Amino acid sequence: TYGGANWMRVTRSGNNFEVSWSTNGSSWTTAGNFNFTLTASKVGIFGANATGGGAPAYTATIDAFVNTAYP
User: Fold this and answer.
1) What is the rounded distance in angstroms from the CA atom of residue 19 to the CA atom of residue 34?
2) Could you give the C-alpha distances from 36 to 46, 51, 66, 70, in angstroms and in order?
3) Which of 3, 4, 23, 33 gives 20 to 30 Å between its CA and that of 59?
4) Rounded distance between C-alpha atoms, residue 40 and residue 37, angstroms
5) 13: which DSSP letter?
6) pLDDT recorded at residue 30
């Protein structure tokens, strides 16, 4: 069990998405990949539990957001 901060990264190339996690923000482990057709007209950040009902409380802290397609 890791008790410190964790980072999550979602990268997109076309319709291919990769989700990665890190315990230090520099070494990343791929958690999964998926293909999803998405036409985005707006971009933002949202944090939530994946389960409904009795999901445990948590805190999501966002410290960076980078849109590399729009420098």
Assistant:
1) 9
2) 18, 21, 20, 21
3) 33
4) 10
5) E
6) 95
